User: What shape does this take?
Amino acid sequence: MKDSNCGYCVGGEPLAAFGIKICDLTVSQLILFKEQSHPGRCIVAYKDHVSEIVNISDQERDAFFADVNRAACAIHKVFHPDKLNYGAYGDTGCHLHMHLVPKYRDGFEWGGVFAMNPGEKYLTDAEYREMIEKIKAAL
Assistant: This one.
C-alpha cells in the first residue's frame, strides 16, 4: 500500500524536500536526512504506508527493527557518535519510520532532545554523495 502524498512512498520531490534515498533494506528504505547538524542522521522508513508498528506482523516488525539495527551499526562504524538517539514520530505523515540521530558530546544539542529539523547545516551534493557511499560501504 502506498500514499501518493507521502515522500517515503513516492520519492521524488516530496522526499527530496528532506532526504536522499541511500538504499533499500530488507523491509524498509534507508534515507539520509538532508539537515546534517547531527552528522550521519538517517531515517529508516518501512516499505509500506502504515501508521503504526501494530499494523504489521510480528515477522515484519522484527525485520523492520533488524533494518534499524543494520543502519545503526553502519552509522556507528562511519561516524563514531557518542550516542545514537532513536525517534519514531509521524503525527502528520503517518508513515512508519524511525529517525536515527547521532549525538556527539561536543556537538549540537548534546544532552537535550533533538530538533526535528533545526535548519542549521546543509551540505553540497558532493558531500551528500560521499556520506552515502560511506554508509553503503558500512552496511
